[in-house]
Amino acid sequence: MRKLFLPGLIVVTAVLLIARLFYLQILDDSFKIKSDNNAIKIVYDYPERGYIYDRNGELLVANQPSYDIMVIPKDIKNLDTLEFCTILNITKEDFIKKIEKAKIYSPRLPSVFLPQLNKMEYAAFQEKIRKYEGFYIQKRSLRDYQVNVGANVFGYITQVNDAIIKKHPYYKSGDLIGMQGVEQTYEEILRGIKGVKYRQRDRFNKDIGPYKEGIYDTIAVQGKDITLTLDVELQKYGEALMKNKRGGIVAIEPRTGEILALVTAPSYDPAILVGRERSKNYTALYNDSISMPLFDRGLLAEYPPGSPFKILTALVGLQEGVIDEKTQFVCNHGFSYGRGSFMRCHCGGGVRDLHVGIYKSCNAYFGNVYKRTIDKFQKPRYGVNAWSGHLKSFGLGNFMGYDLPPGRKGHIPTSNYYDRWYPNGGWRSTTIISNSIGQGEVLMTPIQLANMMATVANEGYYYTPHIIKKIKGQPIDKKFRTKHITTIDKQYFKPIINGLFDVYNLGTAYGSRVEGIEICGKTGTAENFTKINGKRVQLQDHSVFVAFAPRINPKIAIAVLVENGHYGATWAAPITSLMIEKYIKKDTITRVDLERRMMEGSLQAEYDKVVNGFYFEPKDKKKDSKEKTEVTEKNKGDKKTGTQKEDKKDDSQKNNANIKVTATDNKQKPKNK
Length: 673
Ligand SMILES: [Zn+2]
Fold this sequence. Notes:
- It is a single chain.
- By secondary structure, the protein is an alpha+beta fold.
- The chain folds into two domains: 2-228, Penicillin-binding protein 2a (Domain 2); 248-255 and 260-270 and 297-611, Beta-lactamase, CATH 3.40.710.10.
- It has 23 helices and 24 strands.
- Helix 9 runs antiparallel to helix 19 and helix 12 packs across helix 14 (363-375).
- Zinc ion binds at residues 331, 345, 347, 349, 362-364.
């Protein structure tokens, strides 16, 4: 709707404040205007918010005009309340409530009486506005979404609350602010700076020109347009593939760290958080504590990564020199690691070297590598810290520093962690052997998994994943152009890449090959348990897949998580391969049957099992609904204080508490002790 706004035109807003100079001085001590007999009217110029484009220049987010009815309670005179309420289609009780609220904010300052009139309401009210002293119309612009995807990437716009106004005096009642996503991260860039004009009025309320030739006036600074790294076609495709499923997809360009797609499912149409229905719709999304549409799984879901983690076990083993490419271990359908402890393996058994170990995903092979790595050091404490240090060089166990509201650190245990569980050094490599196959105390988010694959694709370095590609007229943050080099030498990545390539040719992803594209990938299955009345109950496994492609000169690294999706090869691997095909071949998907199966496939029945109490005693159902009520109450408080970010955190913590992912073959797991 750019045509509604001439480009570069400052949206000059209508009347704002009529106040005596005395009040002006109270509002702003630095504003040294001496009182005289005239009144001053402050007019704000709200610049139009910057537009948002995708990496190929496609317009994603524009603006549309919106009209708020503002009120200055002190100025209300001779109001025909009945007529007024009829025009606006509100009850008298509503009216009183709104006026009281405005008075509490300030009797002399303007506040929003009724936000975001539609065109019809605006037209009806506009005709009569003169009659209603103390009320006026404030024109603003709201977001106008050109696509119905990417809600989690964009975030949304909302009215500032009292807490924000107190903390950031720039904002006045009724002003809009970006929350979540890029709207929050790039708020100041997108918003611009509003201008202020001081106009003089005589005692007949007639405008007699700028106050003091406008020496106190400021000019509005236009919001800047931004270009995201997102490929909106890929984003659309990912959201379509994840329909009727829960999970996340993160796709990164390895060469740059640019985020190509960030999908979370379920999601929602960003347009439902615009306009008068905003608040109602937001509350509904927030209160959906079962499918949690506001929980960005790509950034926030922490899981034991499972088999994809074996890539790191191998790299650390190679770097520490405890294995080389030719080192062999025998798999006896598992790995005996002393005192009757056994880690099972379904690879078929036999002699395993690095290459076969990777594409057959042999637990015994990686158990051995991990044991050797830790045991290389004089004490297990030193071993774990060395291992942990290597992992941290991949950006694991910490916030990644991307430009979206903060996600999760994941977890990379150090020796201190185990010392707490086993005081006086009562632990060794075999105690923590499940770490070798990504099922111990290690936790990773999908974006960390995708970044790990980008690092492997680059043979040892990565750029911090980011969503900003260009800001009009200004460079993007230098930190996104800084290369992070891991502690693993470049030479050790080649054999790993060859193994990952054969996952497609000979291994678990054989069924997800794409003609003409060489893909390197790894399947994963994260077992999924929840505790009911102290009893461990197993839910369907999560399906995980990580990959990059093409093998030579990689263009995309990707992680796909499908909650309760069973084997990696069932959902996550096909979805990964379709995403890769879509991105590399653009519009030609060759495997239309597979595409249809993924798009139409639903895991709702699996999710309903839990909701319907299939796994739960009636008592727990009660407990569950009580928890939901608590969230609702918290939500109310949240609106006052504007801490959506914190509440989101609470939400996900709740999720983690409800559905906890743990490993089966980890009999000596410290957490259980
Ligand atoms: Zn095996």
